[in-house]
């Protein structure tokens, strides 16, 4: 269970003809893949729930961040709060915190990716450093992480498609354009209830269809997917810059007061909820096996992704919270577009009507590229685990014509598409975040372990300052995990327990390291 897999063996196995993937990606395409994942999933969608929180009518331990419960226990109070607090305008500080954590973790990823240029990302790195059992746990965790993040993005895509249809003047029934479960209900721009909170009859058809359509694209090939993604990245960056440029003149300083309405707890919770969007640089490393020069290109792709995305995120957060009151974006799956819609109705706001259209198109394109990259990453994790015999062999079969893991890609697509039609953006984002942070903790520990175990192995990139940065990465990730609601931790542990049952009753007996008892 704790046997590690030789790095040399991992690399040689990946080069076998029956499992070999096409090597077509360079540093520009890798950076675009990373930006494609990071920009779109959060900047147009989850930023609303990070700013406004997930308010509830009564204090409850299930919806309270772990850090509040711990502080309350130390002070002999319940520590429970009424829902997850929002960061408000202080989300800009949350993003700085997230950028620091991502930079620390990104350096760790860059070192491991330059040593182990194999599909599977954190799963593969863990197999080479911490052993098979921990590798299984992180692989199982990555499946959760990618799936829930894509469910979240596809729900956001549907909300933006509804806004586009509204802009054009094509009203459709909200029954087939919104999730079946709405914890905060659904309101129009005047705040009137369309649906009360809870379940209603319906299904989010656009969220379902976009995942299946992009699954077809991914089955056809990585080069075609990357080329499509590069174009989409340029479109959405242009849309973001347009929003920031025109939005600056509609900022009301009064909206920045109070700057941090929920204090440090809100800042931490806001950073925790938006953190999953930065999984984009993890997606860069999952594609390392399809790079021409992975030891050079992967570190460049990871660090360039972080730099570009952090600047864009902070710009949008500052402008958005200045344009509209921070509470108005709570539970909104299309906060940027709806803020433009609100401001366009005010005196002098008519020029934002066309800006709204441009941002809508950029947001839709942005979320398409996010789904594309996350589905790519998820299928590669299934593929890597199957190649190591921890999942059925069918998941590592490569399409004879397209040379892609077609079966794994289809399974990943169906498992994301159906829940995307049923649930809301906030629930998905919280589940994805804890998986992301847990993966980052193990990757950072892996750097320390390999430094000790194989100090002589060539590293195309080396994290500076010895073990200091990996240790800080671990501590900061745990801090952000403490900002997530208690119920998210409960669901995460349930998922891990299910994974351990699968491992002990199936995967362990198929492993190359398993020796049956005589």
The number of strands is 6
* Low-confidence sequence ranges: none
Helix fraction by DSSP (H/I, runs of at least 4) = 55-70%
Count of alpha and pi helical runs: 17
Q: In what range is the share of β-strand residues?
A: under 5%
- Succession of helices and strands: HHEHEHHHEEEEHHHHHHHHHHH
Shape: globular
Q: Which strand order spans the largest sheet, edge to edge or round the barrel?
A: 1-2
| Terminal Cα span | 18 Å
Radius of gyration: 22 Å
Characterize the main sheet.
2 strands, antiparallel
What is the averaged pLDDT score?
78
Q: What structural category arises from helix and sheet content?
A: mainly alpha
Would you give an account of this structure?
- The protein has 518 residues and is mainly α.
- Helices cover 64% and strands 4% of the residues.
- It has 17 helices and 6 strands.
- The chain has helices at residues 7-14, 27-52, 66-74, 91-115, 122-129, 132-168, 205-220, 222-247, 263-274, 280-286, 294-323, 335-344, 352-387, 406-420, 425-453, 468-481, 486-510; strands at 54-60, 81-84, 181-182, 186-187, 193-195, 198-199.
- The chain has a two-stranded antiparallel sheet with strand order 1-2. Strands 3-6 form a two-stranded antiparallel sheet. A two-stranded antiparallel ribbon has the order 4-5.
- Helix 2 (27-52) runs antiparallel to helix 10 (280-286), helix 4 (91-115) packs across helix 15 (425-453) and helix 13 (352-387) crosses helix 14 (406-420).
- The radius of gyration is 22 Å and the shape is globular.
